[in-house]
What does this fold into?
Amino acid sequence: MRVPATHARRDVGPDPSFEIDLAAHLRETTSVDARLALYGRFVDGETPFDTIMRRVLWRTLVRQAGHGLRVERGVRFRHPETLEIGDGVFIGEQSVVQGRINGTCTIGHHAWIGPHSFLDARQLTLGEYVGWGPGAKVLGSTHTGQPADVPIIETDLEIKPVTVEAWADIGVNAVLLPGVTVGRGAIVGAGAVVTGDVPPFAIVAGVPARLLRYREGHPRE
It folds into this structure.
């Protein structure tokens, strides 16, 4: 059975003015800690009102939020002030977006982030119309492991940017390691571990991920 896609094709109009006004009021009258505490009241709710309030509160906490954001139940975050979110973005249930105090995370228009995803969002860019499969993860840093006479988790962290370019699709439970770029329109197979850059319109899979072929109609240049 073949059915039309829905998320990426839906029209995204402006958010209701009362939501924007409420967000502005909360920004002006309450502290960040108070808004975070208020988010805790709605984070797991199932009603349409809970959904509205999650969107309103994200607008008050992130650096920039587009219209039509949908944040499902149980989504957690750290350092939301470093997040820039486009229009029509979907973030699935129980996902975690972990920013860094001096980092930047950009999520492009119409990106879809599946349930139970983990985004190490210290230096992360997701382009427009990116599909992020349920349970997929990205890591943005690794310990140096040096010197060897101390526990690894005591050694310095190397933070490396990760980029997923527009139109790319990341499969269920895939893992992207620090410093990689997934090219425009590429497909990363389910469960793949991406340790190096993926060319545009390539299809990769496996552990570690290896090139299988290029998508039909987009041969390697």
Q: What stands out?
A: Residues 50 and 175 are 31 Å apart (CA to CA). Helices lie at 17-29, 32-42, 48-61.
